[in-house]
Structures are given as C-alpha cells and as structure tokens.
Prior knowledge:
InterPro entries: CarboxyPept-like_regulatory (IPR008969), DUF5686 (IPR043741). Pfam families: CarbopepD_reg_2, DUF5686. This is Carboxypeptidase-like protein. By secondary structure, the chain is mainly beta. It folds into three domains: 24-102, Sandwich (Immunoglobulin-like); 121-426, no CATH class; 443-830, membrane protein fhac: a member of the omp85/tpsb transporter family (Porin, Beta Barrel).
Amino acid sequence: MIKRIILLSLFFVFAFVNLGTAQTKVSGIVLDKSNQPVPFANIVFKGSNTGIVSNEDGRFYLESPNTYTALLVTSAGFSDKEVPLEKAVNYNFKIVLFEEQVLNEVVIYTGKTSKKNNPALDILRKIWERKRKNGLYQFNQYQMQKYEKVEFDMNTIDSALMKNKLFKGMEFVFDHVDTSDVTGKTYLPIFINESVYDVYGDNKLKKVKENLTGNKMSGFNGNQQILSFVKDLYSDYNIYDNHLKFFDKSFTSPLSRTGIDVYNYVLKDSAYIDKKWCYNIVFYPRRKNELTFKGDFWVNDSTFAIKKINMGVTKSANINWVKDIYIEQEFEVENDSVFLLTRDYMMSDFALNKKEKSKGVYGKRTTLYRNHKFNIQKPEKFYKEEVNFIDNAVYDRPPEFWEENRFEKLNKDEAGIYKMLDTLQTVKRFKQLYSLVSILGSGYVEFKNFDFGPIFSTFGYNEVEGLRIRAGGRTYFGPNDPWRVQAYTAYGFNDNKFKYGVSGKWMVDKKNRIIISGGNRRDIEQIGASLTTTNDILGRSFASSALFTTSSNGKLTNINLSNVSFEIEAKKNFIIQTGFSYRTLESASPTFSLDYYSTLPSPENPAGVIQSKVRQSEANIQFEYMPNRKTIGYGVERDLVDSPFSHFFVNFSYGLKGVFESDFAYEKIQIYYKQPIIIGPLGRTDIIVETGKTFGTIPLGLMSVVPGNQTYWTIENTFSNLNFYEFVTDQYTTLQWQHNFQGRLFARVPFMRKLNWREFVGIKAVHGTISDANRAINASGQPYNAPENVYWEYNAGIGNIFKVFRIDFSWRGNYLNMPDANKFAVKGSFGFYF
C-alpha cells in the first residue's frame, strides 16, 4: 500500500498552468433562499444533454466545447431555474433556488425520496430485469479492439508553486497549461501510458482474453512500480454490477439491486438521444460517509439499457487520499437495439486532504472500444492464459502503429508529455528527486547494475546480538532480469559475530518460468515465527530484529541453512517447486536450549545421550496456487498488483536421515489457505486456515511452534497474546478470521462520522497435539505445552487514525492460568490506505 503514496509523491515535483480551449465554462454554487447549499442539484446546458450534479456543498463546474447561452438548474422540491450565460467563461456563479409551490398532480421529493410510488424506481426495476440481456451479454461470443490511455496530472497550479525552489532547473515544464473539463482546475500532464488490446469473450464459457498488441509509456519505460500502481489503480468494472471495486473498496453501484437502500432516485427528464427515447434519472446518497455516488443516467425506454451515465463519489465518502472520483460512460446503439459501451472515462483527484483548494494529482483513464464482431466461436484452449507474456516488440511500436491504432488523437499537451519527460530525465535536479522517491519505494539505492539494500533492514536488536547492523545488495540490470544474485552481511555488537547470506536464481525457461535457485545463510533467527515454513535463504523474521519488544526475545537459534530448488509455473499462477535443503540448528543463547536425547533413557543408560546440535537434510515438494493474482513484468522476480487474491499452498517434506550425517527421518505435510472476501458495503473479510502434521520423531528445533508476537506491532499469522514457544506442536490446525467494516458502523454515529475511522474485528484459534515419542526425547528444559483444548483469542481495532495508524486490542480467550499468560495486548501498525 505504501508504494501508492510514495509514487504519487513523485508527481508533486511537476507543474504548469494554462488556459483551456473549451467554448463554454461555468462554475459556481447552488443555494436555497436561506443561503444554504443545495446538494446534488442537476445543472445542464440548455438544449443539450451535457450536465453535472452539484456536490454536497452545492458547488459545480461544467464545461463544453460547444457554445451555450443558458443553464437549467433543477433539484427535487425546488422550482426549475434558467440562468442566462452572458459570456463564454462564467466563474463563481451564485444560483438561488426557491421551493416548488405548484403541487397539482406532481410528486415532489424532498430530502429522502420515497421507496413507493416513485416512477424512477419502476424504471430501475426494468433495468435489473434486462441487465443480463443487454450489450455484450446478448451474444454467445464477441470480439473487439480496445484502446486505453492512463494519464497523471499535477493540479491546482499557482504562482507560488511555480516559484518553488524545488523546481530549480526544471522551469521549462511550466511552458504549457490546461484546464480540467470536470473540475475547472489547471493541471500539468506528467505521465501517460497507452495500450492497445484485441479482446475476445465467450459468455457460454465465461471466459475473456485480452491480447496486448502495443504499449507506450512516457518517461518511465520499464519502471515496474509505476506500472503496478497504474494496474492496481484502475481495475475493470461493470456499471451493471451491484458493487464496483475501486481502491480496494466496494462502492454500491447506482444500478444495484440494493441501491434503493442507499440512494435517492428522481425521474427528472426524458428526451431523444441518437434517435432513441430515453429517461433521465438523478441519484444521490441517502446517508453521508458511505461508499456511494452522486450523478445521473439516461436509459432507453424499450431495452432499458443505459445510454449514458455520469457519477462522482461524494465528498464525505470514507476514502483516504482521494478527493474526487468521476466516472463517465457512453453507449452507442448497434443494430437498432444493442447498446454497446464505446467510451469509459474515469478521473480521480488524489490529495492529502479534501479541501477545495488543496493541491493534488489527477489520475485519468480513458478506455475506448470499436470494431465489434459477434458469434465467432473460439476453442476453449484459446482462452488459456499465458504463464509469462514476453513480446518486446509490443513495447517498441513505431509512430506509424500509434497513428493507426489510437482511437482518438492525443491533444497537444498529451503529445508533449513524451518529449517533456525525455528532456526532464536529463536534468540533474530531477534525477536526484526521482532517485529519492525510488529509494523510498523499493528500499534500494540504485547504482549501475547493482542495488544497495534493503535499507529498512539496516538496524535491528535482540538480546543475543544486541544492536545489529546489516548491509546487502542485489544485481539489477533491469526489471526483467532473467537472473539475480543477492547477498548480505550483518554484525552483532553483543556477540561480536559476523553473519551472512547469499542466494541466486536463474530463469532457464521464460515461457514456463522454470527457475533454478540456491544459496546459503549463517545467521541468528527466531525459528517458529510462522507455522507454514519455507526455505527462503534471505528471509528474516521481524521477531528477531524488532528494536522494541514486549518481553524477552532471547530464545534464538544459530542457523546454517543451504538449499537448492527447481520450480515451474505449470499454468498461470500455479507453481510447482521441489528442492533439497541442509541445515544445522543450535541455541544462540545460554538461557535457551534445543537439547534432545539422541538415545532414549534405558536401564543400562539412565541419562540417555543428550545432543545440542541438530543436523538435518530434507527434500520437499510444494504446490502453490493463486487464482486471480496479477503480476507485472516477466523477469525472474516480478511485482504484484496490489489487489486481493486467493492463496492455496501445500508442502510435503521428507527428513533424510543419514544424508550428510542428518539426524532424523520424518514426513511432514503443511497446508495453507487464505481467502479474501469483499462483502459489498459491509467491508472485507480475510479467512486463513493452516494445518500440518509431522510423522516421525523430531526434537524441538524441528517442531511446529505456534507463532507468538512479542513486538508492539500487528503481524499477520501470529497470535498477539502468545509469547515465543508458549505452545509447541507436531500436529496443528489454526483458523483466523479478520473483518474490516471500512467505517460502515462509525458512519451511523453522528459525532464520529467526520473522523472517518474504520472498525476491525477478528478471532484466532489453534488446536495442536504432541506425540509421546516427541515428548520423550525432549531434553531442552522447555515445557512442551500443546493447545489440546483449542487456544483462542479475539481482537477489535480502530483503523485510519490520522489516515495512517491502526490500533488493535486483543484479549486472550482461555489458558489464562499459564505462567506469564498475557491476558490483554495492544498492538499497532502504520500504513497508507485508501
């Protein structure tokens, strides 16, 4: 999440101002006779279908390339008003409406509209009945071309910003200016990305495939994080769906079957549009702070298909860093009755606050469709998604390709972005600013073919090492490197020892993502910090590096781990990996022991033979499936698009006794499953299930330790009220449920609405056992307690405090009488969330 805000901060280093070219511009405020704002009033140019709905403060901005001489202003419960326009540009209009006096056979809706005897709702019900029979859904198969343009613009430019020392040496970016036709603010285009696709769909198979045929990005070619940010920012949506997902939040669509409960609807007008008789319906929220829109739509009177819709997110919506979201869709009629989406425009205004004059960044996406073809059947295998899309020519199309495949020409400012950013990247001042933002976003300091970092792991602390410093780096020739080597070294000032880790991976087959990897690490680690373990050489638990902890974090282990592995992505997002590892484990602290009996006590040998060091060879095979996961790039390491997806993981491990003097033979199975669920307006639920069992006799160092959390921070997959090694198992099952109401409850409490806090609740539980054989070889002095009666804890939290902080309160549900039982815990976390 943090990369979103970090990347946006980059855009704040650009700016310029200009006059627009539109013929008619109007801005102002709509008031009633007592001088109070009239929210959600409908403002249109007289004699046109071009209009907008005022915001909660009654303010509006309207623009058209055509010349108009009057506005029509209407609102439920008020008399219509015609406002003459004496000039082409009219700013700061004050329009006063008066209450409707004539009631003869006219239904007047004031405030909340009725759910009965409302003609707008009769039309809405017809839309519901036909929504799966309109547009592309009328055909078994469809094909079309798609052009997508994503642009970022710095907005609300003023002279003070232009004179800021930040722009010294970059003044040439102020040579041009433009004005938003949605908000009327000046802006500077600073980034543009264009893509062209061939789209194929099969409604019977419920399959859609998009083939990228061209991509062009200004100034930042190959920057994975910006691409990831853009892909995450603008996910696809269908206006007919009940809920629309933007910025990881679920907004109720005005066409939703549940829209009656959250929207007011008013039938305002009817007219011919492209020779089709259509009704105009205005909608606005019933309550504040909910994730809803305001706007209007035109719907055909026979097919009840949407012809045009405009909507914007209300100012009070509980969403961070976004001041405005504006959506506009247009549909064209084909074959007299088929309404097809031809233009989809979305604009977001990102800002630190929602004040009218605050500076921010526009993010705009324009998607155009053309050349529709229908009922051309393709075999099912045609829709199989490629594991690793690689076609460098797609990213290097000549100018002739774009002249032919742009559905609409770039305006002069958009066309100038490419040249401006190419020039900007030669400016020393800009390169310094860009490097700073890149370091914050990736955690690495970039040099030629080498990155130093991650810098956020430089310092740590634990009772064994004391203050710990770490330095490392990785090879980096580009975002799509087929191989990469990483290494680090660390030093503890208490134990006066150097540690290190080195690993490498090589993608030997790009098409199927066949990757060979290996490495070695000698370090101090908190084993048992997670149940579902991996053999990640450079991975390190926060548990052994936290600068501050709630109690002793001295139960640490010296680990020497080597491994080699082979993996293949057999199909998209389905990965099979097999490998071999060898590790030695030994206590790193005199107050903590991993001792075990290598020979059990007997009458001939009452004491048994105690060993302090574990040597273990292990082979494993694992399967990982992540449906709907989206990735950026095709190198040996890829970035993820930050959107929720299911995660299913299975690992089989085999202890190889005698191989390299390995001590134990065993079999282990581990299963992990995570399922995020968006529950419409009720928020998001995450369910995590883990289970595992070890067959065979093993010591403490190889047991499954229920992960505790002795830090002050919230860590997923750990138990907030448990200490390290409080519960040990060789067979376990855990269940975690966490739900984010996203402010739905607090929005109903008047004095809490403005805080925009968000509510979290959750529960975690674990059941586990230990075999008698494993208990018998324990010589560590560590008590073997297993949660045989199901340990559980529950939590409640408040998020979005000052937009960046979350605090969780956690209560222990049982096992209250155990030594040093932590009955209540408070954890916090920081993050940048929308």
